[in-house]
Amino acid sequence: MVTFTDLVERIKSLMRLETDSEVAEWLGISVADLYNRRRRNILPLKRLVQVSEKHNIDVRALLYGRGPTVRNNNHSKIVGKKQ
After folding, report:
1. 8 A C-beta contact, residue 46 and residue 52
2. What is the pTM of this model?
């Protein structure tokens, strides 16, 4: 099961962010909302999908830490796999 803390750490790693406030800004939520979601372990799935599409990031990479990092619209090959 993916926890909110796992998600924040993956976003930090993939997007090269360092702080929770940077993650909150990337997600388009307040820092207070980020902390509240972490405390309650509630994933912002709708927001995550919207932001991943905006930044062309494969949502599976954020949720599960595997798969291509960059979305490939035709899904025929893996593009930009994180090293």
Report:
1. no
2. 0.75
